[in-house]
Amino acid sequence: RGDYAGARDMFGLVARQEPELFWPRYEIAITARELGELDEADVMFRELVEEARGLADGRALVSTLNAYATLKLDRNELESADALLLEAFGLAAERGLLVRQAAVSANLGLVDRRLGDSEAASVHFEDAVSIYQTIGESPPPVLLNNYSGLMLRIGRLEAARDMSERAIAGFRTQGDRRSEAQTTNRLAHILRRLGDFDNALEKHRASMEIYNSIGDSRGAIHAQSGMTAVYRETGDLTRGRHNAKDVIEKASAADNIVLLSDGYMQSAYIEANLEEHNAAIAEYHAAIDLFEVRRHVLGTRAAKIGIVVSLLELGRVDEAYDVASDYMQAARESGSAAVQARGTWLLGHVAVFDLRYDDADRLLTEARDYALLQGDKNLQRYTTSSFTELYLATERADQAEKLLGEVQDIASTDLDYMRLKARVAKAQGRHQQALTLMTDLRNNAGEGWNAKDEALLASLRD
Fold first, then answer.
1. Which of 57, 69, 89, 355 is deepest in the core (most CB within 10 A)?
2. 357 Cβ partners below 8 Å, 6+ apart?
3. Quick one: average pLDDT of 428-440?
4. What is the pTM assigned to this prediction?
């Protein structure tokens, strides 16, 4: 039920009465990990791993390696987590410990997801689900929740929603309120991406209420941070800016760099939407400083993409190219095809603004091909946006219209998507349709309506 302090007290009582028992001390290490006492938990797990190696029961070693790897995941020590999990997976497979093998496989998927390798992560999650199907059991809610995170990352939103809703039902059955709150918050992100903004806000608030009811202020701040994105995408930018600043203040007061880095990212997105791109870049850099302390490579990559986009908006193309090149170099070093595909897209996007249209076409085609092959709808959406800019610049509006139609299912409520559709319609001579699109955009954009939008609308009215 998330009462880790209470659980630790009870396991401690057992351990004091029968100190030779392994499992109570194993559970004490887990409660320390969940309470955020990571240094203490690290020492406990190291001692338990060595003890478990001497036990005849392989379950103890597999479970401890897996639990220790979860701590390493919490610290973003991904290489250490991967090594522990590979050892646990091999031992579980050798001993025929199917349920534990599934748990380890799911955690391997989390490592790959953190590294940005969506393809490898999907294989691990599917393996875990298949094991439960083999033994005739439903996947546990924690597996469904983690898998939904991957589905959200690659833009398979309906699958992500289904998994999250099933996970929430499972956590409620178990009485695990903290996990219910976390999964409800993720469902809010999924609903936002689906354009269901009212329900997204409701889920964020429901998540905050659960966190507050169990005294988890950190979780409540995280749910509040998610609300910033909803305000941003509905054009309520002043409220979004205030919300982001409030999250930053609370996270700073709590000395929580995880929440603080997230707050800076949300604040940067808001500043970019307000066309305060220098302020956005400063917030992205503040986030990167914290991501590097956390060893959070996904966060660093996301911030660098934001910096590139803002630099291009400021006309600083050479600087944008330098950042995109750094991103691509790191992507090559990661060895992940998925990360390299995003780096290829980013370089192609910069090439469009640098008027290197042949290079842009080649790079964007390579990234799009990967996205289509892997079913990565988010990457497909990014390449579609960049291709549309390329096709508008080279008078190929018909090709742009075709690509925009292919991502309508995940982009139709996005303000930038509506802008691109209007520009394409104008380029094709469909001025009335473009006028309708821009009028709808003005009605929906709120404070996101900008000078470029006003100029385009005026030109269509003329």
1. 69
2. 351, 390, 393, 394
3. 95
4. 0.84
- Which string of DSSP letters, residue by residue, matches 179-237? HHHHHHHHHHHHHHHTT-HHHHHHHHHHHHHHHHHTT-HHHHHHHHHHHHHHHHHTT-H
* Residues contacting 23, CB < 8 A, separation 6+: 60
| Amino acid occupying residue 139 | P
Q: Which residue has the tokens 């956590």?
A: 171
Q: To the nearest 10°, the Cα dihedral for 354, 359, 365, 366?
A: -110
17 CB burial (10 A radius; 0-12, 13-18, 19+) = exposed
pLDDT in tens, 289-324: 999 998 888 899 999 999 999 999 999 999 999 999
The residue whose two tokens read 């609903």 is 191
Helix (H) or strand (E) holding 120: helix 118-134
Instruction: Report yes or no: 43 and 28 within 8 Å, Cβ to Cβ.
Output: no
Residues 279-314 as b/e (b if ≥16 CB within 10 A, e otherwise) read: bbbbbbebbbebbeeeebbebbbbbbbbbbbbbbee
Cα 63 to its chain centre, rounded Å, is 27
